[in-house]
Design brief:
Keywords: Coiled coil, Membrane, Transmembrane, Transmembrane helix. The protein is built from seven helices and no strands. With about 260 residues, it is mostly helical. The chain is elongated and about 140 Å long.
Amino acid sequence: MSAVTITVLLLVIGGFIAFAIVLQLKEQARLEKLRKIASLNNQLRQVRRYLDEMPPQYQPKDMRIWLFTRMLAIYDQLLSLQPDASLSRRRNHLAEELSEFQESKQKRRAQPMNDELKIIEVKRLFESFKSFLIQAQKDKIVGSDVAHRYKKLMDFYHYKVNADYHAYLARRAFLSGKMESAIDLYKEALVQLNPIQEEVEAQPIIQKYQDILQEIEEDLALQKAEEELTKSMDSEEEEELDDEWNKFIEGSTFQEKKRF
């Protein structure tokens, strides 16, 4: 075999190998792109879940705004990987939603914590959000101060949601006239706040429950005093009626004996 033939064969083989490497690199790039797209779509669903399912009372305005901006950033990353008209529309709708929320002065209505299963699900959201924050901090998407503040809030809400549940049951008991049950349930709500009683955010809540508890206890004491007074008056009236009846009987007997 001549040197020319060998050279040609080597060039062909080399070209084939180079072509195979290029194809492999392209395939790896394609797979990496698909992986990134899938990861970003998962993040979109995750952040949307926090926005939609985390009760408003456990979602301060600045945290909700951060979630909106995070979601917009994810949309931008997706659009850079796969420009798409429907994706762009969804991104614009989200930007409008954020703008409306920022401009709105109306306070979002709190969701009543009236079910134990709901509380379990809300607590799972808290834990999931904390994990999301840890990853965001690793990826340098959020600053350490902001991440620490939100994680601390989630820890606070973890206990507050239990207190909210017992306070809800206590209010229902009170409205049903079950004063003693309401007192026990408000006391349990305060017990649930014990682990976070030193937190600044917990102080007004504790004071509120204590004030309500004192008011119900005073009402109950007054109610019992009135009942005792009523019983005492009824007893005195009954004794007076008995005395009058006895006098009447005695008088009637005397007159009857006189006739005979």
